[in-house]
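In practice, a research group might receive sequence data for several interacting partners and want a quick structural hypothesis before committing to experiments. The following worked case mirrors that situation: the sequences arrive first, and a predicted assembly follows.
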Amino acid sequence: MLRTNLMQGASLAAMALALFAAPALMPSAAEAKVGVTSTTTGAPLGKPPQQEQRVLKVGVDVFADERITTGADDRAHLLFADGSALTVGPNAELTIDRFVYDPNKGTGDLAISATRGVFRLVGGKITKQGEATMKVGTATLGLRGGIAVIDASNPGSLDAFFMFGDKLVVATPQGTRVATRPGSTIKTIFGQGPSSPSLTPAGALLGPLAKLEAPSGNNVQGSSGVDAKVNQSGFNAVNSGQSGGGSGEGANTPQFVPPALDVTLRPVSADGRYVAETAFLSYNPTTGAASRDPNNNTGLADAGTYGGRLVANTANGINFNLPWTPALVGGPNTGFVVDQTNAISDLGPVTGMGYVAPNEDFYIYYLTDVTTGNKVNLFAGDRTLATGFQTTGVSAREMLDLDTALPFLPESVSLLPVAANAPQGQMFIAHSPVLTNTQMAGSDQRATWFQASLNFEGSGSTQSSFLSINIGQFGADEGNANALYASGNAQASLRESGTGNVTRFLSNISSAQTATGDAIYGAAGEYFVFLPDRRADDLSPPGVTPQAGASQDYATLDKTPYYYVTSSAPTTAPAGLGTSRTNRTMTGFAAGQLDQRDTSGNVTTTLFRNTDASDVTVTTSATNNRASASMEFTELNNPYAEYKLLFGSTTGVNANSSAFVDDQRFAIGSAPSGGSTYNGDPVVTNLAMVTHQAVSNDTDLIQPGAQYCACEFMSWGYWQGEVQHTTGPRAGEYDRVHVGTWVAGTQPDLVDIPLSGTATYTGHAIGNVSNNGASYVAVGEFRQVWNFGSRAGAVNIDNFDGGNYSGFTGAPGNGRDFSGTVNGIGGTGIGRTGNVDGTFYASPSSPIAGQGGSFSITGSGYSAAGTFAAEKQ
Amino acid sequence: MGGLRGGRNLACALGVAAAVALGGPMPKAALAQSGGQDLRDRNVVDQYDGRSPAELRRLYDEAFAAMLADPANLDKSFRFAGLAVRIGDLEGAVAALERMLLINANLPRVRLELGVLYYRLGSYEAARTYLVTALETPNMPPEVRERAQDFLARIEKQKAPTRFSGTVLSGLRWQSNANAAPTGTVRVGGFDAELDDNSTAASDWNAFVAAQATHIWDFGTQSGDHLDSRVNLYVARQFKREEVNATVAVVSIGPRFVLMPETIEGLSVRVAGALDFVMLDDKKEYLAPGASLSLDKAWEDTLVSFGFDWRRRDYHDTKIRPVNSLRDGDEYAVRLSVEHKAADWLGVALLGGAARYDARADWESYREVQLGLSLTMQPFASPFDEQQNIVIAFTAAHLRSWYEKVDVAVDPDVKRKDKDWRLALTVSVPLSEDFSAILQGGYNRRSSSLPNYEYTNWYTMTGIAWRF
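A structural hypothesis for the assembly, expressed as tokens:
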């Protein structure tokens, strides 16, 4: 008989309860926290009694008397302190009436009432000693010690499936029935009383269980890795007895037991690092500094291979014996499975993925210590010498996908479909011989890089969106040109649902230092490994500060530190990379939504755009591999709220603030010298913008048959950021822009505008929407027929957030910069009006090759602001 | 079962039959639950092997707290699920895995594990649902498909309203005293006499088949009531001493009712009609119709069973035993057994029993008590099938009997009083999922107030068992 160590069990359970009892961030003290949201699909909503309704995201606390509702595509899984778990299916509505738990006695009370939907309750400790009750209509169900699925999706009836346990009682005014045998069903038609329990017929659970899983086609992409964790964690070995498979090895493969190492090891580079959770001992939320745990963060002592295996020792004496499977020369950067059948370490069993470069000059392992669940990384390689690293031209790298985490982000984000589905954009590099600080002091050119990812899931109020922009540069230690490094800044923003706040992620980036200093890997600098450390680069004094990344909730501004290990390897560059690199300054438009947070933590939204192309400038320097931009705009409903935001720099200190690879692919962060203002008052910013072509061709939002404007002679894309007001009337307040849009190009000289003829311009209109409290991004089709003789146009924006708009524009002043109004003529556009302001853009071959501009739409409870880009047909 | 004392050869037969059913005590399995079934992959060395239950519970609590604090970390969820299985909280593991399907419904391995968890919980329709949907998952790894199909077959067997299972053991047995005969002087009519060579102890080999089969007819009730029919058969053919060729058949049919399922867990009663049939030297020895009652209470790791048996033995007269029918009579036996799973690898069973036999001839009537001990160890995996453990069982029993009257044909002054010691060591080596090699050695000794009944017998047996 397994006996509980009561004292230990009680203290740990109390610890678990203490987690619940920690001061809640948002709710009033009167509300009792009862559980936590552990998994969701879609945007299930929770309404605590004394809070506003909010989307239940992973990690969101659930409170007593909280009402939970789900839509057709929503699911939620809630975990309670006693181990009980409640899965809520689609189109459900329920209230957690009561949850009381005494961890010392293992007793308590759990009561739920529901009006509709499908639910599954897995009873925890409470149901071992008493019944959990569920009230559905006139029926009261009591579950003792087990699992039940309740299907109340059909009005007037209730199917209760007793999956396991001591008993399931269904009581109605007309009678009571008790199921005691697992696999039984009690059917109830309200008004007639429950049926006698009978064994569940074959297939009867298919429907209800399907409603408690991710909807068909709505799986988190990349989450198939979750399946591999069944093997990697060793769970299958203790449950089904099914093993192997992940590595191509069949079942019944014995656990790997390393042979006595009397073999001769072929030395491979140990110039690398061992990083394991917990990677840092402390965290300073103000500076981001995080002191490293020397036990989990150290160099490698030695490494060698034999017979397809790696034997490596860390500097603090941890031995690893891992599989060693080099990738194919010229093939994909495919990793291999590490599991208990082929790996062993002094830590105990480890599982995960490994990657070895085709030339065996670089290797990295993303492992999990099975005993603790902690992440463990091990990597090393032949360091790139100064003579090997490319100094001209451009190149691309692929972010290695060896764990579920996204580049430069915590793994927890990867559970969200919007993040997991985000394509891992390539890393683009503009090379330069300027690498040491001395060289940087004498030149404005930098070797720069950037990587970005963007994704939208769903549309309208249930949309979730994610944008990550990471910018950096390369350098070399002043006293050691062969100690090359990469540095950078990472920032990302996430809106999990239309009614949710924007969460931001910020981190410094530094290539990992080895025991012998800075290093990138491979004969030609093919491989990089990044950690969240801060490198001063061309700032003074140079050096590396151990740091952690941090996610920051908007409501509380609390920072949660995280650690990542991001790596990259060579890949095939996209066609045309680097073929068009232009020194130029473009003008344009920017639009978006500001989420404004006052000093009390209240967040309101407002939209903005500029109407004159000269308000937005984007300068690219092919010479220096850098770029800069400025945006001036006002709030849509307040022309006296003027923002001037500065991005990047093309000369002087760069400090990871921009990377220009070619005309289609560049990214710009906050200006290193500051200078951004709000109504003339200086503000602190954290900004980043990126071109559409660099993040991928996300077509989720665009109507079938439509497409984004190619507009290769123009630039357009996305931006994000935070503005912190430190002085003036808004001191202490914040603004966040999540996925704003921008468009820019080269305006033609007025004399080049034709005086007669017509032309049709087609493209897209993309903008932010604030719709009765929901915030999201929508894309429509833009079409304008322009009469150069009359300097007037007929403009249509179709299928924008379900609405069609039509109107007329004119450029009576100079024939180039036009403006006008649109009215809703179809769909959701009926009753709404809008404004359009734009200009013509030139290509190398035509002064009137394209049009770009901004637009706004307003209606009852509805505002939208965006930009458009169109090309002459 | 013919009582505690169904004859010397019958005792041997049942000793062999016991080897058929070798396995760790699985108390709850007695109620047709498969929750105690250990399905672990023995090829993978479990990092938690050797940890005490208290330590495992502590790790489990820690893992739950870690999962609660960081629900987004799937590694922590899997760690919790693994520890939950190890401490027997299969529901906890179910909850941890079912939420994975909210992230992605196309997870064949997760579905397989959920199917197995529900199978282990005895929730067969839920298990079947997960396994069927696992098999419909695109790009299913072949090894997962194979395992899912394997469990589906098991589930279909468990879900069927009638189930048939059993074991057949066949092999060779050598005994130092195959005819259980005394050595030296015996008493005849109160005088000492010397036995002839045909009547003294003689070693011999035999070939035997021992089988036991169970048929369950599930009534489909909430409590799990069912009709439980059992057959035990032992047939042995001696190489030399054909007079002790034995055939033993024991049949019982009766319903098992689960009592008060809502208030008392694991309490059941079985009432059965029974028939024993024994042949010696290819001639009918006796036929014994009767009835039995068994009251069982199962806890998680312990099974307590009380039984009452009645048999009416009808002996058959033969040329060699012309007055055999004087032994006709009624046997009444009670027994109390306790089986306890002391550790994953160790089971302990204690048996106590008493019997009374009232024969037509007073000198054939007796009273008897028995005490027994059994230790069943499963120390390590079989080299032939690492999914199953080698089972080593040690059994010891002591019996005492008192005859009511003197047998004047033997000794008019001395009533017969016997003391029996029975020791056996049995090793079962699984060769595959269905076949095992059985090796048994043992020692039986009887001392008696009358030398006619004293004997010592060493024996060894080897055979192959097939489980179906």
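Before designing any experiment, note the following. Residues 6-21 of chain A form the longest helix (16 residues). The helical segments of chain A are 6-21, 125-129, 206-210, 224-232, 235-238, 417-420, 437-441, 692-695.
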